[in-house]
User: Which sequence fits this backbone?
């Protein structure tokens, strides 16, 4: 029996076909076990290379920019070829993608059936690529890439090879889609985990900020002061916390027990305080010593109450204060604002009561009624010891503001302060009147940063009204003789006592009448001003020209007035330098100043 030669070929083809199908099934099964996109792509080209057995195999995907680029390869391929990125509508790949069907060329460089890209053709020539088969990777009806098998010599690709690679590409597309979905799921999971961690961190920040806020609120409700709040903040935040007044002056400073920080100077914080007040938001700066400062404004409605400054040593890699710290700082300003308003209300009520008591003593003096004694005792004040009365006056500060500063001194010395008849007034105990007046003057001067006149008078037999009158009139005389910044008792100006002591008014009137009485009467009867003319002449050291300039009159006019004054007083102004006359003129001026109505 003669065997059929063709039967062996058919048997070989059948066996080969079975082996390829088995390999295809095993490859497809292995692909489904992969999850990472890059691993799936590399596995696809590896198995495709084994199945088709060409010189090299590579896989290209369409990117977000619409261009085709290689993502995985097997075989010897140059780096420049793999880095190539060409439009998705040129070359064999463009034809495969457009038709979503396999295509091959026997000689890539020579074929005219495709649209060539010059840049890619140069790479093809350098790589030695000749024959090329491409099959599409289709996912849900969309061609997302292509799988290529390439030879470096001319050849034709048979139908069974094309079918095998196409079938493999179909399985590969499913694996690729799964890998993309897997990667998208992992990305979404990572993003979800990040978002969840951020939510947890935010919740933790809010819970910690709420706990600090509750601690601050509890401290205030428990009777705590602004100093207690500042200490609690310093312990929670670390570093140091400063409470500043409206002018930027540090009122309270508290440091953390675990991480104290140097006290910043007003210059260090000036810019930050100004920006915080202007913007209403927390501002930050770092000084030259490496200390970081965060400043928040303390406000109540449109009223600026001060500022809160948090200082800490800056770390080189510190990204600045976190949101929780800033949230805590800003919440603390709200609590401090309420506390400051409360303390201010208590202070104002205390000052009002102190002023009312002072006025009662002034109006009811001399003497103390049982009701007055009871009210002062209720405030912890021994009315019998209020033996020194002071009147303060400043050219730059109103009597109301001066009274507020005197209230602070009164609280420290168990005294009373207030505004009486337009004058800032203080009564307090004193063992050494001259020293007490000087101390009050120095304290006011430091506070005001400007000149102030403080005159004190000893209270005799509870007669505060008389002491007030003497101190006020003496203060007017002191300013009249040119003093603008001093602290003294009326005893220091006993020389001028006749001008401010109402009980000596008769002595003063008699002295003035005996010295310049005729001249005063002459002015009153004729409406002239010879008294002022003669006073100016002596004030300018008997210099006629200087006196004329001061009075804005011609020298001849001045001479006529001086001659007339000499005639009335029966003296020669050219030759006589009468000291008693000059004293009478001066006392006459001071009497007018001391007797003038008090202006607030």
Assistant:
């Amino acid at each position: 029996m003669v065997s059929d030669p063709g039967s062996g070929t058919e048997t070989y083809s059948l066996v080969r076909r079975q082996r390829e199908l088995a390999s295809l099934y095993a490859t497809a099964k292995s692909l489904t076990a992969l999850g990472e996109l890059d691993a799936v792509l590399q596995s696809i080209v590896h198995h495709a290379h084994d199945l088709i057995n060409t010189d090299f195999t590579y896989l290209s995907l369409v990117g977000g920019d619409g261009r085709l680029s290689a993502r995985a390869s097997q075989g010897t391929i140059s780096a420049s070829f793999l880095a190539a990125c060409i439009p998705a509508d040129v070359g064999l790949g463009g034809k495969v993608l457009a038709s979503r069907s396999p295509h091959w060329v026997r000689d890539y460089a020579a074929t005219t059936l495709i649209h060539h890209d010059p840049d890619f053709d140069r790479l093809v020539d350098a790589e030695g690529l000749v024959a090329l088969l491409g099959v599409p990777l289709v996912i849900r009806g969309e061609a997302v890439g292509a799988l290529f098998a390439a030879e470096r010599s001319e050849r034709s690709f048979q139908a069974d090879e094309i079918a095998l690679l196409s079938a493999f590409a179909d399985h590969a597309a499913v694996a690729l889609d799964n890998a993309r979905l897997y990667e998208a799921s992992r990305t979404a999971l990572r993003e979800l985990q990040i978002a969840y961690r951020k939510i947890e961190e935010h919740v933790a920040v809010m819970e910690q900020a709420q706990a600090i806020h509750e601690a601050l609120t509890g401290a205030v409700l428990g009777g705590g002061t602004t100093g207690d709040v500042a200490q609690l903040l310093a312990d929670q935040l670390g570093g140091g916390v400063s409470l500043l007044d409206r002018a930027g002056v540090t009122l309270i400073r508290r440091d953390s027990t675990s991480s104290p920080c140097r006290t910043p100077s007003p210059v260090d914080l000036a810019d930050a305080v100004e920006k915080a007040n202007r913007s209403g938001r927390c501002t930050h700066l770092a000084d030259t010593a490496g200390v970081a400062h965060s400043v928040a404004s303390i406000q109540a409605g449109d009223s600026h109450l001060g500022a809160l400054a948090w200082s800490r040593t800056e770390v080189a890699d510190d990204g600045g204060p976190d949101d929780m710290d800033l949230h805590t700082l800003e919440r603390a300003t709200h609590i401090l604002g309420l506390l400051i308003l409360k303390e201010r209300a208590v202070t104002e009520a205390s000052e009002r009561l102190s002023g009312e008591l002072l006025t009662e003593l002034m109006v009811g003096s001399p003497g103390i009624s049982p009701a007055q004694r009871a009210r002062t005792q209720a405030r912890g004040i021994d009315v019998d010891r209020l033996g020194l009365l002071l009147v303060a006056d400043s050219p730059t500060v109103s009597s109301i503001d001066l009274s507020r500063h005197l209230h602070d001194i009164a609280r420290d010395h168990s005294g009373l302060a207030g505004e009486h008849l337009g004058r800032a007034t203080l009564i307090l105990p004193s063992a050494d009147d001259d020293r007490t007046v000087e101390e009050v003057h120095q304290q006011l001067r430091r506070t005001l940063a400007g000149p102030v006149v403080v005159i004190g008078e000893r209270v005799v037999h509870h007669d505060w009204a008389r002491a007030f009158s003497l101190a006020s009139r003496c203060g007017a005389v002191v300013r009249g003789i040119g003093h603008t910044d001093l602290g003294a008792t009326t005893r220091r100006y006993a020389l001028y006592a006749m001008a401010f002591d109402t009980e000596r008014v008769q002595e003063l009137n008699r002295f003035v009448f005996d010295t310049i009485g005729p001249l005063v009467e002459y002015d009153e009867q004729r409406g002239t001003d010879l008294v002022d003319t003669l006073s100016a002449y002596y004030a300018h050291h008997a210099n006629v020209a200087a006196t004329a300039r001061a009075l804005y009159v011609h020298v001849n006019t001045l001479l006529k007035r001086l001659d007339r004054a000499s005639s009335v007083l029966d003296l020669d102004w050219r030759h006589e330098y009468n000291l008693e006359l000059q004293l009478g003129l001066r006392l006459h001026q001071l009497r007018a100043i001391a007797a003038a109505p008090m202006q607030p």
Q: What stands out?
A: The longest strand covers residues 303-313. The two ends are 146 Å apart (CA to CA). The CA atoms of residues 56 and 76 lie 6 Å apart.
